[in-house]
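Q&A FORM
Asked by: J.P.
Topic: structure of Pyroglutamyl-peptidase I

PROVIDED:
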Amino acid sequence: ISISGFGPFGEHAVNASWIAVQELKKLGLGEGVDLHVYEIPVEYQTVQRLIPALWKEHCPQLVVHVGVSGMATTVTLEKCGHNVGYKGLDNCRFCPGSQCCVEGGPECIDSIIDMDAVCKRVSTLGLDVTVTISKDAGRYLCDFTYYTSLYQSHGRSAFVHVPPLGKPYTAEQLGRALQAIIEEMLDVLEHSEGKINCRHEH
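REPLIED BY: S.T.
REPLY: Here is the structure written out as tokens.
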């Protein structure tokens, strides 16, 4: 499983998404799961290079991207990525001329993971973190990365938005929430594909 967080940008000198991913790395996902973590720079062109390379190198069962949203107060599961509407400049002051991820690609790609099911299941675990669902990842690098990854993986990607650190959650809380979310995602994925993974005991 590959998991990415983003580097600093704008007012986010410390990006909560990367901190949360590092916390998750410490916690791990259990014995049978090989976990690779990446920090992605907030740059469109790097994302376009990095995502295909990541899929090629690891052929992961699942890729989860984590991003920070200054407006979020919950941990948010994004259902889909959007192809068009990218006008915000990245850390290199660059923006795609076409304002889209993949020219000629579908307008929107849904994750094959049932985010409603994941959200419901995580919400019953009694974590001290609220988890919600969204259909709009924001038309900036989060959305751009998610769409690029969904396009590469035929939908085998997920995106989780976290609020900035301390607003209201600590790094530990975010790490634990990610761990629970990804475990449920894997479970949902396995059942939806009709595979039974004996290692995954609840």
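FOLLOW-UP: The mean pLDDT is 93.
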